[in-house]
């Protein structure tokens, strides 16, 4: 006779997880969910989205469609999201009638508005770049037409809503950049001289336990402002890493003290300034590009960790067992159509290289089509391998 209690018994599928969004993050989340014995229902407007081939059910519709969100909620034990752009008002109403949505819609709503996010950081004493002023859409048009006085150069403009993968940010360094001003509700913030861009992945479970992954270093593509290469662990002093992790804890605790259900994985992007300060740039309440390397390099991937957290299961170890470098595979400029890859053999013959293909049916310039992670006991060796692969592997279209 097996000795056990009802609390110890799980009937498969363990949970039905509803995922808002069917992109690459949803696909990688679903791959891990299926390994762990979860059922996955996803919502996406594209019938051929990356998650479509592996989820148990795909609800086709807009992420803002109230009826589709209600359908997703009805079929799920817990709902989460792989992209922030959804109907938070509908989610808040669903939460009121008992739907478990994690992280909470109120937290998502806060972080979706970059000005509110910035104000939250300032209010709670989290180090961040100086907020200069709020800018309405009409203001921005006047700034662009030179009929309203601009702040001293240089400065940064950020759209309040809708920005991702480098969109929604304009760096205004001089008069020649004024045409870059975004004509939308936004804000101006201080321009920071950056030594490195770093990020911390944090996970919090429903019982309040918090774990962090090793700090990573991020290098961005100047043309697209999309993450180009990620290095883990970051090449920074241990004291700097500990300071960044401490700030990450402070951010999660600031959500908790504000009665926001901060459960799941959070990506906290930071600037390490030339003067040695750490300033928080942005926060994503979901699995993130800066954590893809964890699939191969850590004992628990960010995707498994997120599922553990939202399902009420114990958090896993965040130990990184092997140094790693990750590069994004972006669609090459000048190519649109059915994707084709140059240099596949280069990836497959490189020791420690792992290809992740997202399964998107169309490539466009700078679209994320996949990523490659290289693990190596020697971080410098991993970096050199990544540079070679990055030079030789290209995503073009079939009609070349």
UniProtKB/TrEMBL annotation:
PROSITE patterns membership: ATP_GRASP (PS50975)
UniProt KW keywords: ATP-binding, Decarboxylase, Ligase, Lyase, Nucleotide-binding, Purine biosynthesis
UniProt GO cellular component terms: cytosol
Binding site for ATP: 114, 158, 189-192, 197, 281-282
Catalytic activity: 5-amino-1-(5-phospho-beta-D-ribosyl)imidazole + hydrogencarbonate + ATP = 5-carboxyamino-1-(5-phospho-D-ribosyl)imidazole + ADP + phosphate + 2 H(+)
GO MF assignments: 5-(carboxyamino)imidazole ribonucleotide synthase activity; ATP binding; metal ion binding; phosphoribosylaminoimidazole carboxylase activity
EC number: 6.3.4.18
Keyword Cell division: no
EC top class, as a word: ligase
SUPFAM superfamilies: Glutathione synthetase ATP-binding domain-like, PreATP-grasp domain, Rudiment single hybrid motif
GO BP: any one term: 'de novo' IMP biosynthetic process
Gene3D superfamilies referenced in this protein's UniProt entry, alphabetically: 3.40.50.20, ATP-grasp fold, A domain, ATP-grasp fold, B domain
A Pfam family per the record: RS_preATP-grasp-like
The protein's annotated pathway: Purine metabolism; IMP biosynthesis via de novo pathway; 5-amino-1-(5-phospho-D-ribosyl)imidazole-4-carboxylate from 5-amino-1-(5-phospho-D-ribosyl)imidazole (N5-CAIR route): step 1/2
Domain ATP-grasp per the UniProt entry, residue ranges: 118-311
Subunit record text: Homodimer.
Function of the protein: Catalyzes the ATP-dependent conversion of 5-aminoimidazole ribonucleotide (AIR) and HCO(3)- to N5-carboxyaminoimidazole ribonucleotide (N5-CAIR).
Family: Belongs to the PurK/PurT family.
Protein name per its UniProtKB record: N5-carboxyaminoimidazole ribonucleotide synthase
Species this protein is from: Fervidobacterium pennivorans (strain DSM 9078 / Ven5)
């Amino acid at each position: 006779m097996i000795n056990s209690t009802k609390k110890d018994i799980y009937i498969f599928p363990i949970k039905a997880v509803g995922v808002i969004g069917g992109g690459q993050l949803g696909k990688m989340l679903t791959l891990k969910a299926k390994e762990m014995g979860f059922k996955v229902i996803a919502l996406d407007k594209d019938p051929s989205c990356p998650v479509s081939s592996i989820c148990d059910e795909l609800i086709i519709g807009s992420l803002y469609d109230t009826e589709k969100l209600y359908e997703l909620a009805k079929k799920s034990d817990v709902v989460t999201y792989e992209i922030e752009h959804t109907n938070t008002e509908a989610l808040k109403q669903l939460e009121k009638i008992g739907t478990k949505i994690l992280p909470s819609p109120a937290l998502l709503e806060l972080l979706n508005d970059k000005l509110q996010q910035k104000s939250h950081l300032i209010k709670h004493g989290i180090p961040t770049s100086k907020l200069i002023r709020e800018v309405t859409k009409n203001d921005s048009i006047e700034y662009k037409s030179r009929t309203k006085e601009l702040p001293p150069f240089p400065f940064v403009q950020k759209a309040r809503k809708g920005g991702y993968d480098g969109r929604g940010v304009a760096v205004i360094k001089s008069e020649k950049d004024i045409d870059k001003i975004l004509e939308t509700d936004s804000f101006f913030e201080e321009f920071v001289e950056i030594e490195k861009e770093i990020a911390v992945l944090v996970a919090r479970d429903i019982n309040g336990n918090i774990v962090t992954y090793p700090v990573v270093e991020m290098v961005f593509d100047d043309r697209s402002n999309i993450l180009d290469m990620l290095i883990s662990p970051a090449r920074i002093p241990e004291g700097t890493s500990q300071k960044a992790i401490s700030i990450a804890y402070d951010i999660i605790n600031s959500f908790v003290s504000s009665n926001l259900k901060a459960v799941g994985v959070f990506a906290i992007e930071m600037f390490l300034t030339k003067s040695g300060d750490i300033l928080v740039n942005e926060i994503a309440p979901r699995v993130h590009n800066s954590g893809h390397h964890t699939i191969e390099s850590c004992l628990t991937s960010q995707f498994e960790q997120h599922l553990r957290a939202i399902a009420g299961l114990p958090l896993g170890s965040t130990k990184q067992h092997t140094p790693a470098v990750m590069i994004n595979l972006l669609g090459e400029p000048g190519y649109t159509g059915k994707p084709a890859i140059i240099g596949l053999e280069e990836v497959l013959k490189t020791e420690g290289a792992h290809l992740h293909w997202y399964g998107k049916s169309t490539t466009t310039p700078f679209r994320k089509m996949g990523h490659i992670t290289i693990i190596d006991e020697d971080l410098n060796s991993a970096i050199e391998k990544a540079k070679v692969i990055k030079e030789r592997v290209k995503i073009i279209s079939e009609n070349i």
